[in-house]
Amino acid sequence: MKRFLNFLKGVAVGVANIIPGLSGGTLAVILKIYEDVLDGFANIFKHPILVIKKYYLLYIGIIVGVLAGLLVVSSMYDLAPLPTSFFFCGFVIATVPFLFKSIDFKKVNFFHILWFIIGAVAILLMPFLTGSEKNIELNVFNVFLLGFLGFFAAAIMILPGASGSMFLAATGYYKPIINILRSILNDMKDLNFTEAFYGNLLLIVVFAIGCVLGIVAISKALKFLLKKYFTATYSFTLGLVSASAVAIIIVALKEDNYFNDINDLWMWIFGIIALGVGIYLGLLMVKKENKDIKRKKSINNKIEEIKNEALDDFIKLLKIPSVLTDFNPSSSNPFGDELKNALDFVCNMAISDEFIVKNIDNYATHIEFGNPNGELVGILAHLDVVPAIEEEWSHNPYDPVIINGKIFARGVADDKGPLIASYYALKIIKELRLPVKKRVRLIIGCDEESGSRCLNHYFKTEEMPSLGFSPDACFPLINGEKAMISFDITGKLTDEIVSSFICGERYNIVPGIAKMTLTKNYEKEYLKFLEDNNYEGYVKDGYYIAKGKSCHAMNPEEGLNAGFILIKFLNEYHKSTFSTYMTNYLTFDPTGEKLGINISNNELGSLTSNVGIINVNNNEFKIGIDLRVPQDNYKDTLLEKINKSFLDYPNFKSEILTNIESHYVSKDSFLVKTLMNVYKEFSKDNTGEPYVIGGGTYAKFIKNAVAFGPAFVGREDVCHIKDEYLYLDDFNKLLQIYTNAIYELIK
User: Which of 36, 384, 414, 472 is catalytic?
Assistant: First the structure.
């Protein structure tokens, strides 16, 4: 149905290109396919197969519209220019006011207003530039001339409000070109194919080539301008479109005086009727817009009503220290008591709000509502948080505080804030009784940070959603995730200088602190080493302590692994097989170059490597490594590279712990387009595009799922670091975005 509507919209755009004064670009904007038109024409040479596959019905519709315009509408225009023009004028008048809703008036300045005026004046002047009608004959000059005319007419046609037909009329070539096209169509209708193409073929082919090149050129330019200078470009466009209603009538009036006799009176009568019909049809088209506006207003009002309630539940959840300390599959609480407490909290909250709630063995739970027979949409969030070292924090990480508009606590951004925002999004839709055709489940796990055993268990028995998103990353939208491989390197120490080495608790975190004890006293040398290298650290109670910078493993280059500082010291002052191996193959190498695994590709980027755990105890060591790999089926190649690094270290061995494939959802999918449209509308960020990360989110569990928020563009990445925080304004904006996004997916 949606594709057929695109076909009909294409027909309307094609027809508009034939009527002098009416713009195909105007109709494309009004019908909300303007971005599709630009995208298709801008990429037609770069990705022809993909573009044709994606937009073929739209293109067929445009071609059919042009032919219909030549055979029917242009004839109507010849017979009754005024009523025909009044009809299209009414359509534009009814719909233009709604185009202004895309402008953020807070960002409008004098120059934007000036661009609006320039666009309007340019369109109003065009009808007065009509030139004398030219005679087209087959000669070299006219062949090249028609190519240039096609280029500029098509380029002008793409501009909303600007009429390519009017440009041709201004140059005196509109009717001659229309007559040639009509002649060809009439000859073909009479099966006189030789007559159809003889003489006129070369002229029309050159004109068509010029049109294609003009459309492609202006489409590329407009995509660039709308991305870089949205408000200014859109203001200019609105000026073009707004003035086009007047320009259509001016062109029609220039066809005749319409004040001479009774026939002219009837033209005015029919014109007024046609104007009313055009306005009526335009209003019908924007009726859906009115419903959307009313619905969005009701959502905003509801958010204002319950945002304090949402914040209270958010704070209560943050006070539960839901850190996974031990996994016991034989226990009724497999992830520990605190995660069970957090799970009970959200379940009880949902039960009291009369949602359908199902707890799957305390591994995960889901909260559901909607049409019982509808397609299932999944929202995937998690309750577990990474550990917080209290001595690094400015306050108790599990006792939330609000300072200068920010709420500080462990898990506030990853992932309890987005979880509560998603839950309240469901609650708002439910309480407003908005009409929905699908079901939605908020699926909540307890083990995202340590391998996602929760959802592996959940999906053994529960239905797989057909699409969805995980609010556990960044805006605007993440449509791809690299493959993930974690592995251990273990062995025995041959040099007993290191008594203990403690660094890191999670594979997916760059360790921010590390400590070791030695059998010899190197305190003086260590302090000098720290000073010489500008590192932070100290010696206390026999521990040599280093302080680095913690961050997420998907971007290890943004942190400083504290364990590497200690290894570097050991390798400089007391070399061993352990310190030498790490120096040669692992330390200070976020891309895996030392192991020879620094691969990359265009879609998923480059491999990243994080040494998340370094432990030494009783002369045995373990090195835990997390890789984000832009390639599937890399396990065998990785093992080959690791074994090669062991040639001089026969006591070392490796073990692959996890091997998760990559995940990718097309930018052109319904899911990505829907979420991006909501994000752009409510964030006012018109430049953001979907992108790929090295991080792993729950989105990988659903084939057609992406990561969507909560971190806004320009905000600091605070996940997994000390003093994690979330702006209260951002929390409220999450309520708005997730409510509208979920509704768009299930309506």
Answer: 384
Measured in whole angstroms, the distance separating CA 714 from the mean position of its chain's CA atoms is: 15
In angstroms, rounded to a whole number, what is the distance separating the alpha carbons of residues 613 and 561? 10
- Contact predicate 510/722, CB 8 Å: no
CA distance 315 to 318: 5
What's the gap between Cα 141 and its chain centre?
Answer: 49
Selection from 674, 682, 678, 675 nearest residue 104 by Cα:
682
Cα-based angle 539, 543, 544 (whole degrees, multiple of 5): 55
Contact assessment for residue 67 and residue 75, using Cβ atoms and an 8 Å cutoff: no
d(CA 468, CA 490): 39
> Residue 736 and residue 712: Cα distance in Å, rounded?
13
Residue in 338, 447, 448, 626 annotated catalytic: 448
* Dihedral of the alpha carbons of 404, 409, 414, 415, in degrees to the nearest 10: -100
Q: Compute CA distances 621 → 344, 408, 485, 547, 566, whole Å.
A: 39, 36, 20, 21, 15
Q: From the CB of residue 38, how many other CB atoms can be counted at a distance below 10 Å?
A: 21
Task: State the chain's mean pLDDT as an integer.
Answer: 84
* Chain centroid, CA 698 distance in Å: 17
Residue 202 has pLDDT above 80, yes or no: no
What number is the average pLDDT over the span 175-180? 72
Tokens describing residue 115: 């661009």
**DSSP letters along 235-262, please?**
HHHHHHHHHHHHHHHHHHHHH--S-SSH
Over residues 653-690, the pLDDT tens digits come to 999 998 888 888 988 889 999 999 899 888 878 778 89
How many Cα atoms are found within 13 Å in the side-chain-facing hemisphere of 562?
Answer: 25
State how beta strands 543-547 and 536-540 pair: antiparallel
Radius of gyration of the chain (CA): 33
Please, are residues 634 and 619 in contact by the beta-carbon 8 Å criterion?
Answer: no
- Distance CA(16)–CA(13), nearest Å, equals 5
For 62-196, strand residue ranges (E) read none
User: Which pLDDT tens digit goes with each residue over 225-253?
Assistant: 777 777 787 787 777 767 777 777 776 67
Whole-angstrom CA distances from 472 to 85, 414, 469, 670 are 52, 6, 9, 20
* Structure-model confidence comparison of residues 399 and 689, the more confident one: 399
Is pLDDT above 70 for 33? yes
Catalytic site residue 729? no
Q: Cα separation of 592 and 178, whole Å? A: 64
Exposure b/e, 472-500, CB count within 10 A at least 16 = b: bbbbbbbbbbbbbbbbbbebebeeebbee
DSSP states along 518-570: ESS--HHHHHHHHHHHT-EEEEETTEEEEE-B-EETTSGGGSB-HHHHHHHHH
* 113-135: average pLDDT: 73
**Which tokens hold the place of 668?**
């052109």
> Is-catalytic flag, 448?
yes
- Average pLDDT in the 381-404 region? 92
